[in-house]
């Protein structure tokens, strides 16, 4: 993935009002190369299951 691709992806994610789902590969890219957007990502599936079950 080129620097331009990363910039475009960054801009697209930043423009989303609400992110309901993101695949693991994209999540890894965001967490590694765009940490400023990581807090916008939805909780990981296992984190949501833990919250629902109360464990």
Given the structure, what is the number of helices?
3
| Mean pLDDT across residues | 86
Q: What are the low-pLDDT stretches, counting only 5+ consecutive residues below 50?
A: none
Structural class: mainly alpha
Largest sheet descriptor: none
User: How many runs of DSSP E, i.e. beta strands?
Assistant: 0
Secondary-structure element sequence? HHH
Rg (C-alpha, Å): 13 Å
Number of domain modules = 1
Task: State the share of residues found in helices, binned by percent.
Answer: 55-70%
Q: What fraction of the residues are assigned to beta strands by DSSP?
A: under 5%
Q: Which outline best applies?
A: elongated
Q: Terminal Cα separation, in Å?
A: 38 Å
Topology:
Elements: H1 3-15, H2 24-33, H3 45-53
């Amino acid at each position: 993935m080129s620097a331009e691709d990363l910039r475009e992806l960054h801009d697209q994610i930043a423009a989303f009002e609400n992110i309901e789902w993101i695949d693991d590969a994209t999540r890894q890219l965001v967490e590694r190369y765009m940490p400023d957007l990581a807090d916008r990502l939805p909780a990981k599936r296992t984190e949501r299951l833990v919250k629902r079950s109360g464990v």
